[in-house]
Automatic annotation (TrEMBL):
<dbReference type="GO" id="GO:0043473">
    <property type="term" value="P:pigmentation"/>
</dbReference>
<feature type="domain" description="Tyrosinase copper-binding">
    <location>
        <begin position="383"/>
        <end position="394"/>
    </location>
</feature>
<dbReference type="InterPro" id="IPR002227">
    <property type="entry name" value="Tyrosinase_Cu-bd"/>
</dbReference>
<dbReference type="GO" id="GO:0046872">
    <property type="term" value="F:metal ion binding"/>
</dbReference>
<dbReference type="GO" id="GO:0042802">
    <property type="term" value="F:identical protein binding"/>
</dbReference>
<dbReference type="GO" id="GO:0042438">
    <property type="term" value="P:melanin biosynthetic process"/>
</dbReference>
<keyword id="KW-1133">Transmembrane helix</keyword>
<keyword id="KW-0470">Melanin biosynthesis</keyword>
<dbReference type="InterPro" id="IPR008922">
    <property type="entry name" value="Di-copper_centre_dom_sf"/>
</dbReference>
<keyword id="KW-0560">Oxidoreductase</keyword>
<feature type="signal peptide">
    <location>
        <begin position="1"/>
        <end position="18"/>
    </location>
</feature>
<keyword id="KW-0503">Monooxygenase</keyword>
<keyword id="KW-0325">Glycoprotein</keyword>
<feature type="transmembrane region" description="Helical">
    <location>
        <begin position="474"/>
        <end position="496"/>
    </location>
</feature>
<feature type="region of interest" description="Disordered">
    <location>
        <begin position="292"/>
        <end position="314"/>
    </location>
</feature>
<comment type="similarity">
    <text>Belongs to the tyrosinase family.</text>
</comment>
<dbReference type="GO" id="GO:0004503">
    <property type="term" value="F:tyrosinase activity"/>
</dbReference>
Length: 529
């Protein structure tokens, strides 16, 4: 059934989105440092004739970085993407894409004016047909070459500063595996030297926004290659799980009967080949992963080092994490204490929020627990469990955003590790996205989570939110006005009482005539404050 669905979907190919645009992976674009492809709708660069966008110089953040990376000018990812391109499409309004040919997340329609919010659902709540369709879509992505994007197989220096382009084709699923690898790989310093304390997607403030953007792009590519515009990523709610409930042939692949480190042959994922898992080999060769197949997916859930990850995360762990009020703190890396981000990522204890990199909690715990391809950062996206795991991590991030309603300024603007400041562009995405653009509620990006939906209450909250935010900004003035109002009321009350007392002492000859009872009922009293 899955093979039939995959074969059927092969006839509906549409462009994919990912990293280096194919139309810009050439000598001319690299030497000119310009990536402003034409939009098919009018043939003009960035759809400028249709007011979709224009080719502009890239505006890089000048905010200072943290001390974790003591080099400059040695890594192609510094000031992304300026080593490769310093002019790209800047899209207007709700348009998006490397040529402004798409709609921003959360919008659709011919002119990208229609708002939409789609729902991500628990994988165990899907019907059999929905679940089989999801598995078929995954397998389809693994077998369709990306039409719009290619990957770099060499550094800019190895490309002779652009005169010798080094790129290759890749399938849609592996494109995202490669992007995750590229963002987290070590810096190559020449000879056999590398710098390991660098990661543009982990161990710092950008961890949650980066993976939020990553999932949105992955979700959209599945929608495009399948023609299923309503597709959303399911999530795996692993709270209080006693084992890997999705590790069955019905879902993400069961255990091989004779080799516990491999997947069951009954699973479609048993035939998948992994890429970008041999980081030490790449480092010794001073080379990038070129997406060569490196063997089958490895997974042996539960046979991990119990001293590092004694159990899967509990509901109590998640609730404690959500109670933390600071998004980021201190050094803003894996040593940060009382940081919501660091605790959710798993470098801080989920019961104290004190940093302890020797233990793995929450997000990290799941990766370690899988004891295989998922457990090595650079190649972890090879295992399709990665997607449903990170969808649930993103839902926890969403719960924190809804509970604490942080302003954008809560996300650090400066002194974060390289690539993680608010205005830094995320590595290695083209089109360009800044970290701060994804530090916002998911509904503003066009999606929600089934278990977070409370329709009536949510609509009321949505109505009140802008007013509450305004009130929060002017609360001091409101309190002052209330105090002054109370004083004025007290003074007026005293004056009225004094007047009444004086009138009681007035002689009966000069008192006004009494009002008839029926006229009294028609009198209306108004007070103006």
């Amino acid at each position: 059934m899955l093979l039939f669905a995959t074969g059927f979907l092969l006839v509906n190919l549409q462009p994919s989105t990912g990293q280096f645009p194919r139309v810009c992976a050439n000598t001319q674009s690299l030497l000119s440092k310009e990536c402003c492809p034409p939009w098919d709708g009018d043939g003009s660069p960035c759809g400028e004739l249709s007011n979709r966008g224009s080719c502009q110089n890239i505006l890089l953040s000048q905010a200072p970085l943290g001390p974790q990376f003591p080099f400059s000018g040695v890594d192609d990812r510094e000031d992304w993407p300026s080593v490769f391109y310093n002019r790209t499409c800047r899209c207007e309004g709700n348009f998006m894409g490397f040529n402004c040919g798409e709609c921003k997340f959360g919008f659709s329609g011919l002119n990208c004016t229609e708002r939409q919010v789609k729902t991500r659902r628990n994988i165990f709540q899907l019907t059999i047909n929905e679940k089989n369709k999801f598995l078929a879509y995954l397998n389809l992505a693994k077998n369709i070459p990306s039409q719009d994007y290619v990957i770099a197989t060499g550094t800019y220096t190895q490309m002779e500063n652009g005169s010798n382009p080094m790129f290759r084709d890749i399938n849609v699923y592996d494109l995202f595996v490669w992007m995750h690898y590229y963002a987290s790989r070590d810096t190559l310093l020449g000879g056999s030297n590398v710098w390991r304390d660098i990661d543009f997607a982990h161990e710092a403030p950008g961890f949650l926004p980066w993976h939020r953007a990553f999932l949105l792009m992955w979700e959209r590519q599945i929608q495009k290659i399948t023609g299923d515009e309503n597709f959303t990523i399911p999530y795996w709610d692993w709270r209080d799980a006693e084992d890997c409930g999705v590790c069955t042939d019905e879902y993400m692949g069961g255990r091989h009967p004779t080799n516990p480190n491999l997947l069951s042959l009954a699973s479609i994922f048993s035939s998948w080949q992994v890429i970008c898992t041999r980081s030490e080999e790449y480092n010794s060769q001073q080379a990038l992963c070129n997406a060569t197949s490196e063997g089958p997916i490895r997974r042996n859930p539960g046979s991990n080092d119990k001293s590092r990850t004694p159990r899967l995360p509990s509901s109590a762990d998640v609730e404690f994490c959500l109670s933390l009020t600071q998004y980021e703190s201190g050094s803003m890396d894996k040593m940060a204490n009382y940081s919501f981000r660091n605790t959710l990522e798993g470098f801080a204890d989920p019961q104290t929020a004190i940093s302890n990199p020797s233990q793995s909690g929450l997000h990290n715990a799941l990766h370690i627990y899988m004891n295989g391809s998922m457990s090595q950062v650079q190649g972890s996206a090879n295992d399709p469990i990665f997607v449903i795991h990170h969808a649930f991590v993103d839902s926890i991030f969403e719960r924190w955003l809804r509970r604490h309603r942080p302003m954008l300024e809560v996300y650090p603007a400066a002194n974060a590790p390289i690539g993680h400041n608010r205005e830094n562009y995320m590595v290695p995405f083209i089109p360009l996205y800044r970290n701060g653009e994804f530090f916002k509620p998911s509904r503003e990006l066009g999606y929600d989570y089934e278990y977070l939906q409370e329709p009536a209450l949510q609509s009321f909250q949505d109505f009140l939110t802008p007013y509450l935010q305004q009130a929060r900004q002017i609360w001091a003035w409101l309190v002052g006005a209330a105090v002054i109002g109370g004083i004025i009321t007290a003074v007026l009350t005293a004056l009225i009482k004094a007047c009444r007392k004086k009138k009681r002492g007035t002689s009966s000859e000069i008192q006004p005539l009494l009002i008839e009872s029926e006229d009294y009922n028609n009198i209306t009293y108004q007070s103006n404050f």
